[in-house]
Amino acid sequence: MQQKIPIVIITGAGLGGLSFYHALIKNKDKKEFNVKIFERESGPQGIETNIFHKKNFHVNSLFPTLSILKKDRWQGYHISINNFGARSLVNCLPSSVASNLPKAMPNPIPDVERHGFSLSDHTGCLLLKPPSKLAKDVYGVANASGSSEIITYRDRLRDVLLENVPVQWGKKCIGYEETEKGVWVFFEDASKEFCDILVGADGINSPVRKRKIPELQIFDFGITQINADVAIPKSLIVRLIKIIGNSLSQKTIGLNGDVILIIYRLIPIEQEQEQKDKCEPHYRVTLIFNYPTKLDDNVESDKIKVDDNDPASVIDHVKYMIRKLRPECEFTNILLELWSLVPRTAPDPKNYLFKTYNPVQRRQIRDIDPLSVNVWTSSRVTLLGDAAHAMSPVLGLGTNNAIKDAEVLSQALLNYSPENYISCIKEYENEMLKRTSADVLRARSSTLKQSSPVGYFGSIFRNNYMKTVNFIMNTFYYDYFSRK
Questions:
Q1: What keywords does the record list, in alphabetical order (predicted)?
Q2: What pTM did the predictor assign?
Q3: What is the DSSP pairing of strand 47-50 with strand 68-70?
Q4: Most exposed: 37, 222, 345, 386, by fewest CB within 10 Å?
Q5: Burial class (CB in 10 A: 0-12, 13-18, 19+), 403
Q6: Which residue ranges make up each domain of the chain?
């Protein structure tokens, strides 16, 4: 009698859920599963709201279309894939998919790009620049023994992982019911699906997590974050690099808990010849501004109105905060110029360099508190990525851990049988919880420290301490942020 092929349902087609899908398909010769993946978004690019035909700009394979699209969830921004994340990604993907990774993570440009992190003070003075091994490509990052990373276009990585994946779109999971024989998964459109294993990869607000482990609590940092993707002219990038160096991930910390992160690649957005003759090269840059939420009370007392449905008011708010919190200097002027380039309204698609536009808004930084639950009960239902361990983005560990989850869970399920599925899930959850709980708390600690006001005299102590740490790290080639 032929054995029934077990069904695995994945709710959530983010980077973690898609990596897990590919890992199961890649290993089908060892253990075959019928894998179904559902996503609450209406489609891979959301809802198309404006299409144009006149070509003022065209972009290379990193940005293949120029329609202005409204996404259910913004998939853009740069992210850092580190050595353990790259290793897991390569292990999860079939060669046919992995061969397209350069579309999302182009090979580093030797002697031009430094794929690493640096920290400066409010004037742009270097405080910390951890050692980082330059790799030729993503495989070099994956095989690095020490700290190594590659700055990646998140939206393009998702596009690569979506290729030839039969995602069922517009299917929002709202709950499930576990039985002795399997799991019924319920969707908002009143449909339901049956499976042997359910994997919730549906983000920090996961309905699967809320049903499986309702005791897990969300931790609110009391920190506001504002993100933007923007096209920056070469002349401005040159001025920025002159002050803070050529690390592609630059963070600057102020005296009042304000933190600004700038992430970019030195790969020009390709333009048609007509535009090349008229303007200088532009680069895609991600801007992130964090500050203690309580500072908004002071803004309101200054009678400044901030409307999160009005991008212009949010941009003006950021610039107001920078002027108020940062000293008058060239570095502050550059920061203001960067934020001045963020579109204040839905841009004219004829002149917009990205395939999507996402209005800037204030958001709260949150994580899932691993200390709020002592024990997980393993069952046919498990969690992956932010659904299990959403963490502060400060250390860049969230995506890397989600991809690592995909690898670990897919390996554990190679031993799946109707009799021992619990032990497979338990093996995965034990490893995942040990690894990610430490990273959630480490990211939380770093976030709270960086966002704590220190004042002028406190900054002197902090800056000297960071410079000492920097000296030790580079002298002994030790990186606190790396993982073997």
A1: FAD, Flavoprotein, Membrane, Monooxygenase, Oxidoreductase, Transmembrane, Transmembrane helix
A2: 0.90
A3: antiparallel
A4: 345
A5: buried
A6: 7-43+167-216+373-449, 45-162+220-370+454-484
